Amino acid sequence: MNLEKMYEMQKELDARIIKEKGLEGVDLLPNTVLALQVEIAELANEWRGFKHWSNDQEPRFNVLEIGGTDCSEEKLVNRVLEEYVDCLHFFLSIARQLDLPEEDLYVWEETAEDDTVILFSELLHNVGLILADRLFVNPITDVPSFRRDHFKAALFIFYALGEQRLGFTFEQIAEAYVAKNAINHKRQSTGY
After folding, report:
1. Could you tell me where the DSSP H helices lie in the chain?
2. Which SUPFAM superfamilies has this protein been placed in (predicted)?
3. pLDDT (0 to 100) of residue 148
4. Distances (CA, A) of 46 to 25, 81, 115, 124, 166
């Protein structure tokens, strides 16, 4: 599995949703940006490191969940990774909506800010700036470039957060992405 394959999987899922929901020709970028911001907040909530008021600041890496029809199934769930992959789905969807080529999904390799709380804040800020041109219209500004720059900055922060701060390997992320993509397709089949 590689990033290009995940991008293609996201394009297929997005195309299915657009077709089945009758959204052809609708500008979905504002909704998708907001959805990504919500997922980033959910990721931060599962990470818990910013909750200075709580004695429970441990990330939800291994949470025991009980399920099944008779509540007899138990499994360990990495909720932080689940939320991270939800964010990745929306990042890839935004990339598709901005018509970014696959090579734009790769960003420079540097060490990011040491403070995870600051990373989350910078991430939310840059994601929000993807739509900032809607607030400040300037016909001379190269809007696609402006959006791409903020998208790529947010993506760099997102990757750094996952690899450097949360400790995920690309293999873990890819495996979780494929699993969640299958769930998302199943949800569409069952009237989600």
Report:
1. 3-20, 29-47, 79-97, 116-129, 143-160, 170-189
2. all-alpha NTP pyrophosphatases
3. 81
4. 35, 9, 17, 16, 11
